[in-house]
Amino acid sequence: MTSRISLSEPVLVLNANYEPLNVCTIRRAVGLIVSDKASMIANGRGEIRTVRSTFPIPSIIRLERMIKRPRPTVKLNKQEIFRRDNFTCQYCGKQTNKLTVDHVKPRRLGGSFSWENLVAACPPCNHRKGGRTAEQANMRLKRRPKAPTASANYIFGRYLKRNEGWFSYVDGW
């Protein structure tokens, strides 16, 4: 007997050369396995029973054919800025869940929407800085903002705590 598991749980998708490509749902992974487009590498979750057959629930699958794709990049959005800055205000160093995004050089002064100009800031620091530069507001950044490296550990890092079996496939890419 298996416990109830959601078909939307994450499954690591590996390329034919075992390079981590993506994360999909159990439903999608089972569909790829049944259609012989992928094979199961790790099953640590039990099985799905249907009227006619039983399917193992995959944790990691590997595509049968090699997929060529461009180098991955980390998308610039609010959550990724917070994640890059470790959910820490870049002015006072306070770690909190209630963060805002601050433009180091304000947009009205020609600041861009880029990794190098956006940081996580707590509301009091963001309010104190206002529409000025950090120097004008007498504030210092804890560290200089830059784009995170698009390593597999960073891209798939949010899943690694709950799926420890993925680490050996993700580490080193």
Which properties best describe this structure?
alpha+beta; two-stranded antiparallel sheet; DNA Binding (I), subunit A; four-stranded mixed β-sheet; 173 residues; 2 domains; 20% strand
What is the element layout, followed by pairings?
Layout: E1 10-14, E2 20-25, H1 26-34, E3 38-42, E4 47-49, E5 54-56, E6 60-63, H2 78-84, E7 100-103, E8 118-121, H3 123-129, H4 152-155, H5 157-160, H6 167-170
Parallel strand pairs: 1-6
Antiparallel strand pairs: 1-2, 3-6, 4-5, 7-8
Structure report:
By secondary structure, this protein is α+β, with helices and mostly antiparallel strands. The chain has 2 domains: 1-72, no CATH class; 78-129, Orthogonal Bundle (DNA Binding (I), subunit A), CATH 1.10.30. It is built from 6 helices and 8 strands. It has helices at residues 26-34, 78-84, 123-129, 152-155, 157-160, 167-170; strands at residues 10-14, 20-25, 38-42, 47-49, 54-56, 60-63, 100-103, 118-121. Strands 2-1-6-3 form a 4-stranded mixed β-sheet, with helices on one face. A two-stranded antiparallel ribbon has the order 4-5. Strands 7-8 form a two-stranded antiparallel sheet. A hairpin with a 5-residue loop joins strand 1 (10-14) and strand 2 (20-25). The mean pLDDT is 88.
